[in-house]
Amino acid sequence: MSETTTVTETHDDHHPSDWEYVKIAGILAVLTTIEVLTYFESVFTFFETRWILLTTLFVLMIVKFWLVARMFMHLKQDKPILSQSFAAGLALATGVYIVALLAFNFFSA
Amino acid sequence: MSTATATADTHHDHDPHATNTGISNNKLAMWLFLSTECLLFGALISTYLLYKTRGNGGVLPTDIFDIPFTSVSSFVLLMSSLTMVLALSAVGRGDMDRGKAWLLVTAMLGGVFIGGQVYEFTSFYREGLGYTSNPAASAFYTLTGFHGVHVSLGILMLMSLWVSAQQGKLTPNNAETVEIVGLYWHFVDIVWIFIFTVIYLIPPA
Amino acid sequence: MTIIDEPLALESGETYAEKPLGILTRPQAQGGWKDWVSTVDHKKIGIMYGVAAMFFFVVGGFEALLIRTQLAFPDQGFLSADLYNQIFTMHGVTMVFLFIMPLAAAFANYLIPLQIGARDVAFPRLNALSFWVWLSGAIFLNTSWIVGGGGANCGWFCYSPNSGIVFSPTHGVDFYAIGLLITGIASLVSAVNLIVTCLNMRAPGMDLMRMPVLTWMLLVTQFLLAFALPVITVALLLLLFDRTFDSQFFDPDAGADPLLWQHLFWIFGHPEVYIIILPSFGIISEVIPTFSRKPIFGYTAMVFSGIAIGFMGWGVWAHHMFVSGIGPISVAAFSLATMFIAVPTGVKILNWLTTMWGGKLHFTTAMLFATGTVAMFTIGGLSGVTHSLAPADTQQTDTYYIVAHFHYVIFGGGVLGLFAGAYFWWPKVFGHFLNERRGKINFWAMLIGFNLTFGPMHVLGLQGMSRRIDTYSAGYGFDFWNLMSTIGSYLIAVSVLVFFYNVWKSKKEAVDLPPPGPDPWDARSLEWSVPSPTPEHNFDEVPRVESFDHWWFQKYEIDDDGKVVRIAETEAVAQDGSATGVHLPSPSFWPLVLAIGLPLIGYGIIFNLWLCVVGGLLTGGAIYAWVFEPVDDPDAGHDHDDHHDDEDGDDELTAVGAGSAGDEDGEG
Asked: What global pTM score does this model have?
């Protein structure tokens, strides 16, 4: 950290090509489709089991979130400090609000 | 690379473009701002989660969600993230025509999303879910409305970029400006990824 | 890079001097009022923060005196119950949001760039924006006395449903909500700005772990602000929507949960306590080593305990709600977390004491205030531990014991420390000392008055006198201690008058006294290596930092026997401030224009939506003017054409990025 570096250095990293972006968007589209399919419980009856449904939805959500943040927002290529600061806000928000909802007995309902 | 400007900049006693982290001030500021936004949306989402079953005897948002419709508009917003990175990539390459086109497409996809939200709100209102109907309704409209305001501001920024590109003020040298607006845009998108799952898709127990 | 913030066309059509000093481009309005309203210089902004904060200190202090006058004797009718509610509410709001926070911001603005060896903050115009937005919010908040039918009357925490339209029918609460939203925008912008400054603008060699403790504590404070303000923003908006648009967030009859407000408020409110206290901790961490003639003891522990306090401050908010019925598990968890937070605070107190231990103590006024801070904060901290125990807290809640506790923390720990800072950095900022003899009178009057005011409140609280009551009956044993407390409060007022007299008189006397020179206290951090008052460009030459306490090691070294040896005279190693042609950020009127728009939107929401249109146009117009100002810096374009592609862009995106950050803040 002590050495100053120029802004330009961050641009030397390889951003994905357009084709790679399209592929990521394709994955996102597939994941979204699976998400929406859970809505049709009568067709995919295993989604009637609540823990399967919730696990599926949360895993898909986190993967989508992760893909956009890592690839489209370039956290993968950028300096770690950006990931760290964003993770700090995200973790703080998650922790604080889960505790607050716990205090309301939200999850035991 | 890092010394290239220091020698050219005879007026300054150190390289003015240098930052300790190697990240420009603007980009760092935008990321910090987005981190703080997590707390903002977290509060709104928690409020809705707490209140989602409190209908005070009236209609609940969960009763009248139109999942297929919202799925389409969510998909539109998701794909606008793709067009946003394509815009950035084009501007970075110096392909300003394509960059402008993708910026415009991104803004239009955002516009479609907002249009969908307006339609959704109107039809919910017709079904008896007013802003003041019950705590669940207030929390739902405030959360999604806040997100909508964020998308609208994003559209405004995208259009500003497009206009300045039309006027020739936006050049490949400003690729980072596009990137920073893009960060904001993607953030708004990932907030919706969260909202779409937690608010819309998880059915009431 | 933002050092090259662009000159903006001024509305008045004022012309820019063509390069009066080399490439130094500034408007010609030097020194006049235009200079102050358009300045982006972090030092002038710091001074303006300080002046405005002291003004609101007087306002809040006046409100305190009204409270104490009402309570001096039993069964008094000096204030009506309603007015009493308004006064104690506005006293709290004013002292927290309009005095301590901006005074801390004054120190942060003035000192962070100097302590890290920078010419200015990362976003000079956003810095000006922060100040003007804060000021407009502060003025807006206080206009409720005139146009809002009185001040807010719901306490500074403004619990629902008491804050709803049914129980608080005047516009006071609306002014509270919107006023705090506006000042919140200011603090959020300022927090992001100062974080980027600390992370990005440090001089070569100024590692994070070489930054002075004050800068570290201010950095932690800014992180707390950045993360806590969005929470209160949401809470205030929900309150405002309830009151203005009849939403149902806090109406128990409609099935809403009033505890939601309490949670949101205290998730913000507890970090806020550390936002108030940490700058003061930082200040005395500079003052105590300087006047003990020793380096700070346990620098790393100081830094990490500060970070730990900032982090743990997020896990204790519900200890404000032990009696609200949050359930035994929550109470137990938050009670434990609260006890743990005493650990890093204890580390800090220990380190200050060990810094003084064996040192050559010089009890200047600044040092007196600093030691006073340590002592008084310890008392407040200990009483705090007593109500981390939920059973004890159940007895203490809503009594004067709590009032005593938080004044020992906030006044004893916060305000005394800020006064230490004022006496310490006065010569650096204004180029002359504050008189030491009057300063010591100021200190002792304040310390005695403070203890006389708030010490008895412990007794009153344990005797069962509840907070927020507008009067009490004779014969409960409250009479004597209330009178003592009132006498104490007037003594505090006298001490503040002594301070103002000292400010005025010292300036008058300064002409006959020798100037303080760059380093009058023989101090340790970089700001003392430049002339007093600080020249506009801060550093002639950006320092190259080789160690913690770099400036001190320019003057001294430690020989083989471990003895401190003077190696250079201060004047020989200090900078003389003679550099010319240093490129500084150019002033701008847009921050002020933008700031004027926001309270107009506020009045619009309360009175007439058309005003919102006017305010919105003003704000939006200012943002666009700010963002799309053509980039015509003489320095930027042509020099670098033959270099790397990305170089030219930086200047412009400084403007755009800065503006777009403001853009989103405007709505939040």
From this structure: 0.90
Residue A59 has pLDDT above 80, yes or no: yes
What is the DSSP-derived secondary structure letter of residue C15? P
Query: What is the rounded CA–CA span in Å between residue C629 and residue C7?
Result: 9
Using a CB-CB cut-off of 8 Å, the residues of chain A touching B183 are 73
Topology of domain B31-201, per CATH? Four Helix Bundle (Hemerythrin (Met), subunit A) (1.20.120)
Q: What is the pLDDT of residues C552-575, one digit of tens each?
A: 999 999 888 888 899 999 988 999
As a whole number of angstroms, the distance between CA C397 and CA C401 comes to 8
Q: Both A89 and A49 in a single domain?
A: no
Which residues of C are less than 8 Å from B142 in CB distance? Answer: 237-238, 241, 247
> Predicted ipTM?
0.91
Query: Is A9 a member of any domain?
Result: no
For chain C, which domains are there? Answer: 41-538+546-575 (1.20.210.10)
Rg for chain A, CA atoms, rounded: 19
A72: in domain: yes
- Picking from B89, B179, B193, the nearest residue to A64 by CB comes out as B193
Dihedral of the CA atoms B95, B96, B99, B100 (nearest 10)?
-160
Which residues span the domain enclosing A31?
Answer: 14-78
Residues A47, A57: one domain? yes
| Residue in this structure with the two tokens 């004491």, named with its chain if needed | C353
Same domain, A71 and A57: yes
Is B93's Cβ below 8 Å from some Cβ in C? no
Which pLDDT value is given to residue A109? Answer: 57
Domain count, chain A: 2
- Indicate if A18 and A70 belong to the same structural domain: yes
Q: Which residues of B touch C235 (CB under 8 A)?
A: 43
Q: Are C84 and C71 in contact (CB under 8 A)?
A: no
Q: Which of B19, B26, B129, B144 to mutate to test the interface with C (most CBs of C within 10 A)?
A: B26
The tens digit of pLDDT for each residue in B135-155 reads 999 999 999 999 999 999 999
**Chain B nearest CA to A88, separation (Å):** 7
